[in-house]
């Protein structure tokens, strides 16, 4: 096998409309919703950096400029923090600062689907393998989920997507694996179907919002074939890679919270607050009042 190219790039699509979170998302990007005290986009970037990613591309759309501001240096804020002696807050801001030139944005003018959003990043991706993180899937993992995918990529080469099992009655909301061989942690794949009818789903193993893909997927996306919901589906383009490149699902270790969904976002607040030593007692205390 020729030497694998290292995984250094990540694409983060944030151009969706976030209709499930209206009216909160009317003027504000869904990815700026905080969980405890960090916006969703920050968790995704941190997770990618923990996997060794050095170059980031946000696929933005109308009303998403706040996401880019979030990664800028807030000069006036930093000076005020310094003057007021808030050194811990200042140190945290600086430690998390985005290195100059590491973040670029591409505009998806019309939200034509996730596949179309990824295709908009084609010049950024070039000839390199790349990760995709959908920031509204918030991961709580001991080892960064993207780092787990990167490790699997180094083992198998080719494409690796994070997967989880869902109850049969929910498979119609996801991209679903048609399994060639289930080896436990890794599952080799012979096909993929986006949002299948429940009785036609080939398995209950579904793709979550974390991927490592090879650049050849762009050639398939370029055809702009419409799939489920009339959108250009990433799953359909990925399915066309199977046979010519390795394609695996990875049962990642950790938990996922669907923060594009109100109940999922609320659950994430509780789970992340309970994991914080400075908040756990207070949260446990007030939760008792509601149960
Ligand atoms: P969702 O299916 O969650 O859609 O997109 P959405 O528009 O963000 O939210 P709802 O369903 O209306 O509430 C999954 C991911 O794909 C991105 C979204 O930003 C999100 O990260 N996406 C989707 C795009 O970037 N462009 C698109 O055309 C569609």
Outline of the structure:
The protein is an alpha/beta fold and 291 residues long. It has 11 helices and 13 strands.
Keywords:
291 residues; nine-stranded mixed beta sheet; 30% helix; binds uridine 5'-triphosphate
Separation of the first and last Cα atoms: 56 Å
Strand content: 15-25%
| Averaged pLDDT | 95
Helix count equals 11
**What level of helicity do the residues show?**
25-40%
The level 1 CATH classification is Alpha Beta
Shape: globular
Sheet having the most strands = 9 strands, mixed
CATH architecture identity: Alpha-Beta Complex
Number of domains: 1
- SSE series: EEEHEHHHEHHEEHEEEEHHEEHH
Q: Explain this structure to me?
A:
The protein has 291 residues and is of the alpha/beta class. It has one domain: Alpha-Beta Complex (Spore Coat Polysaccharide Biosynthesis Protein SpsA, Chain A). It is built from eleven helices and 13 strands. The strands form three sheets. It has a nine-stranded mixed β-sheet. A hairpin with a 2-residue loop joins β2 (34-35) and β3 (38-39). The protein is globular. The model has no long low-confidence stretch (mean pLDDT 95). Uridine 5'-triphosphate binds at residues 13-21, 30, 59, 108, 111-114, 116-117, 134, 136, 260.
